[in-house]
Amino acid sequence: MSQSTRLRIAIQKSGRLSKESQKLLKSCGVKFNVNEQRLIAHSDNMPIDLLRVRDDDIPGLVMDGVVDLGIIGENVLEEEQIERQTLGKPADCVKLRELDFGACRLSLAVPNEFSYQDASSLEGLRIATSYPNLLRRYMQEKGINYRDCMLKGSVEVAPRAGLSDGICDLVSTGATLEANGLYETEVIYRSMACIIQSTQSQPDDKQALINKILSRINGVVRAKE
Ligand code: PRP
Ligand code: ZN
Ligand code: MG
Predict the structure, then answer these.
(1) In what residue span(s) does the ATP phosphoribosyltransferase catalytic domain sit (predicted)?
(2) How high is the ipTM of this complex?
(3) I need a surface site. Which of 77, 155, 192, 220 has the fewest CB within 10 A?
(4) Is 152 helix (H, G, I), strand (E, B) or coil?
């Protein structure tokens, strides 16, 4: 694939970050229209293409240099970094800045009837998660052995379905935990959205465009503080 002369930015297709990511780029003066059926949205006033993909795919696309920039939760970024370091795959990217949306925490949670003292209450038990690497790092630090139950989605139903004893999942308002008869016991990682750039060297005009977007993002975020 030839290197695109247009700047490629990956954003989440649908989910907690997608609306805010689009809003941020629009407030930086990038004009585009999103067609829900299309993966790519071309900007009409700047040489920029938006790739609308699964959030979990964004860090890898940036680290492999497939896209130039990505807007992603720090939790997903860190998870992918540990995963790739473990596998010896390229895991480098540059975090340009933290953004002012996408606040969430990755937490351990257990069923309401579970009597929880501390993380050692989970010794030998099974924990469902979509973030096996962040969970492993935390449990290793605490010296606790547990068993994995890897689920890409619907993590919150795992205990009731008899798949696991507890979960390690993202919490934002806490509504999902409550609706599933679970309570939060420990926060293992706090996260915001951030914008990342690939480490690939860019032609001057493309890097100038990245710098322009970044300085506008700085202005937009600062204006709201
Ligand atoms: C997370 C998490 C819960 C929900 C929690 O999913 O998996 O489903 O948010 O939010 P709440 O505390 O406000 O109820 P999210 O949509 O972030 O990501 P995903 O689609 O990648 O699982
Ligand atoms: Zn996801
Ligand atoms: Mg979810």
Answers:
(1) 54-218
(2) 0.91
(3) 192
(4) coil
Considering the domain 104-191 in this protein, what is its CATH number?
3.40.190.10
CA distance 128 to 3: 40
Helix axes 204-224, 18-27, angle to 10 degrees: 100
Read off the DSSP letter of residue 159: T
Question: 18 CB under 6 A from ligand 1?
Answer: no
- Percent residues over pLDDT 90 in the chain: 96
To test ligand 1's pocket by mutation, which of 16, 79, 105 has the most ligand atoms within 8 angstroms of CB?
A: 16
CA distance 178 to 174: 6
Pocket lining: 152 vs ligand 1, CB cutoff 6 Å: no
**Cα(215) to centroid of ligand 2, in Å?**
28
| Ligand 1 atom showing the smallest separation from residue 73 Cα | 17
**CATH class name, domain 7-102+192-224:** alpha beta
DSSP strand pairing (147-150 vs 94-98):
unpaired
Span from the CA of 3 to the centroid of ligand 3 (angstroms): 34
Closest to 85 (Cα-Cα) out of 48, 102, 68, 60: 60
Q: What's residue 3's pLDDT?
A: 62
Residues belonging to the chain: 225
Find tokens 């003292």 and name the residue.
117
Residues of the chain with CATH 3.40.190.10: 7-102+192-224, 104-191
The residue whose C-alpha atom lies closest to atom 17 belonging to ligand 1 is 16
Find tokens 């930086």 and name the residue: 28
